[in-house]
Specification:
alpha/beta, Rossmann fold, Helicase, Ruva Protein, domain 3, 3 domains, five-stranded parallel β-sheet, 19 helices
Amino acid sequence: MKRILVVDDEYSIRVNLQETLKKSGYEVNSAKNAREAIELLKSDEYNLVIADLMMPGMNGIELMESVRKNDPEIGFLIITAYGTIKTAVEALQKGASDFITKPFSLSHLKSLVDHFFDYQNLRDENKRLKRKLSYDTRFSTFVGKSKATQHIYHQINIVARSNVPVFIKGESGTGKELLAQAIHENSDRADRPFIKVNCSAIPETLFESTLFGHEKGSFTNAIKTYKGLFEESNSGTFLLDEISEMPISMQAKLLRVLQESKITRVGTSKEIPVDVRIIATTNVNINKRIEEQKFRSDLFFRLNVFPIRVPPLRSRREDIPILIEHFIKKFQSKYKFKSKKVDKATLDVLMRYDWPGNVRQLENLIERAILYSGKEPILTLDYFSLETDQPQIGNDGFGETLISIAEMEKKLIYSALKKTSNNRTRAAEILGISVRTLRNKLHQYEDQGGHLTSST
């Protein structure tokens, strides 16, 4: 309900305004002076105050200034019998939404009130759109529009403002580190350090020193005191990437840090308090690691307060077109080109590919295609066919060899023709492409020196 407070020391004006505005669907209350109005505004919410400029005690502009200290969004319409330019300008400069000069018609005042609420609706809609835009772009490092990705956005919204540990699971290349970064950037620690370490890249002998630091002379080559990564990330976020690769000997020490929020550098017994938000990732079956006694169950339970699973790209194929567009934009400044896009036939193939290397593989492939395409604006399959080191496709009828996307496309077409006894119309339906596209592909293969039918 749109609520209005009328403030005027003249009884007749208060009554007439109340009746007129109520007939127009507004909820209206009134006060005979500023002091009474302030009490009403303290006890209830109003969208608009219609106040007389000249009242005993506090005048209309002074009332507006007082109220705006606590409620800067509330609107004010000033009524004045002294309709000079100076008075009107002062009222507007002080923040009045509008003013009206006595004597006035009730229809004129109603039109000003309607105009105010129309403006307020536009302002609120603009804020809503900005919030929506903010929501969509907050996760610019982790891109997608599929239901699976939207669910991850929802999880980020839930967990970002807390300080609980987050355990992110998913295959290699799915974007676990980008997800961790999105959590950090949307947290209260966003302006503090975001430190990451790949646990599989640290030699076991250097693990403790790397994480907790060391004192000068604590071991050979310790020529100066070194702050560990926990101290470096103090008050921020610490990402333990591939934590499943952490040596079992280090896991107990990490557990103690999580329990007590204190670290001890190598070479001293002095405890140093740390305030760090932990995010851990893994690309393996962590439960199997626990069964094999390669990962501590108590550490897992401490880290797994808020688990997030990132699905593989093959499970969220709707994200592929928007990811392609994202990566093209990402490389635009690096390689200095105006615009590029993937043609439909190529996109069809990319959408069917299983992406064993997930998003990272797609990004690498797009970058390579951009390099090979030069100044050409269209990224056709020819540029992608230069990919010769694709991982094996798996049990999909294509064998276990390493093949390019172009070769995969050829095998898809061959398989469809074989199933339909070379019926091009039915084969095109199976492949989800037009007969014309299929015919062009077959002509292309013929030009390359071969025929692609089920008899080849």
